[in-house]
Amino acid sequence: MFRSSPSKLILWCTSIVILTVFLIPFTVYKYFNQIVKEAPDKSIAEVLEPINNLFIGLGFVAVLVIIALLVGGYFISRSAFSKINRIVDTISKINVDRLFERIPHQNGKDELGKIISSLNEMISRLDVSFQQMKQFSADASHELKTPLAVMRAQLENGMKSNANLTELRDTIAECLDETLRMSNIVESLLLLAKNDAGQPIIKSEIINLKDLIEQTFEESKMLASQNSILVSLTNIEDATISGDVDRLRQMLLNLIDNAIKYNHPNGKIEIGLWKENNRAKIIITDNGIGIPEEDIVRIFDRFYRVDKARSRERGGTGLGLAISKAIVEAHSGCVYVRSTPKKGTEFTVIIPLYSV
Q1: Cross-sheet strand order for the sheet of 268-276
Q2: Which domain holds residue 303?
Q3: Residue 116 falls within a domain, yes or no?
Q4: Whole-prediction pTM
Q5: Residue 175: pLDDT above 50?
């Protein structure tokens, strides 16, 4: 019984007190009523003797009840404080390097069990967050380190005494390219940091999504043609939304650029726009190399690349899809991907339509 939850022990002790409070007056009333009926036939000593015995018995019962309550209270406090001490001991061991620790508890249905379960869930979320922060810091350092190393090598080569003017210009041009790449990385990180901090990353205006997609299509055709890839529009419907035209253009160009990078020569990209259930649905499909199933779940992670060599070779920062996702979610929308390796990939963006 004492191994049950503290709330059950408290209920048990309270029941004893209530039972005793009601039982003693009832017993006294019944007993005195019987004595009064028999008093005319008995002496005072005979009348007082059972009364004394009654009070002695009641006193004995009261002592037993008090002892039971004290013992019950002791076990309740001991059980509760032992669990609390275990919680405190475990929490005191947990720090940034020991987020794998969990608070042990056998019974998860009592009050303390629910608290411990909530604490363990919170620790798990912290563990995931810290792991992501560590990975993000490592990736960011690596991404910034690479262009710096290239710039240093180029500048050291340009400082050679026998370097001619053409070589110096080439060196400066290559350093400028790396500087622009670093600038893109920093700007992308700042945008994601603002989004993480809950600061607005978009402005609101009425946008004709059909016009925006057609403009973006024209911009992307030149880039696609350089890679012998055909971009086409399919089923473009009129759709009006509220949002930031520049951020939405950035999102569309990121998705189209991703489809170009991971496509085959003479590949195809199709862009479509539909209205469905008061929502605008944008679908960008390619017949490229596709994405392995194990990479789908991480495709929107920062600095994550399915093909690292190809992405860096074509100037990718590994932040395009993460930024696209942040922009879509800032418009109260969602983005998801379906892909089949060696057959192609389909990105779907859903954004609520504008309503007055």
Answers
A1: 230-236, 268-276, 279-286, 344-352, 334-340
A2: 205-352
A3: no
A4: 0.64
A5: yes
